[in-house]
Specification:
- With 168 residues, the protein is an alpha+beta fold.
- The strands form three sheets. Strands 1-2-3 form a three-stranded antiparallel β-sheet, with no helix packed on it. The protein has a three-stranded antiparallel β-sheet with strand order 4-5-6.
Amino acid sequence: MYPIAPGWYPLAVSRTICLVVFTGEAACQRHDVALGENGRYPLGELGRWFLSGPTRTRERFHRQLDVLRDAKRHYPRPGEIVVTCDPDNLPVSGFPARIDTSPGARALVFRPEIAEAVAVWCATSHDLAPGDHPLVYFDGDTLVDVHQHRRIDDGYLPLRIAPDQDGN
């Protein structure tokens, strides 16, 4: 669905395997882009493109505020430590995680409600300084991490982190 008089372009919609891109209102500004041989849409001739995230809405903004104001999301449980990527803003930038030291892997593991808080912290930081912070959001239960610099690179795919068997 498109607004009657959109104030910005391009707009795009997927129709089966054809992507329709509108770069203006004139008929010549409709571009039907077929899926390429590599399973990607060749959009280069339509301008410079980059990956973005969910649309900013009033509801999303208020949800993010609620998450950031929830102080319980900053306190570790037994077996967790507080981690941060912004030590100058502790304690608000610190989130509890456990360190998975399984053979061959070393990763931070967040409880679902903490992963949501980390995603909101990153998304808010990205909104304020997009060149300094990744865009992080959820696609269903999967956390999507779009690197702030690499997202314009040809062939770049964001990091997708699915929950483990315990839902973390």
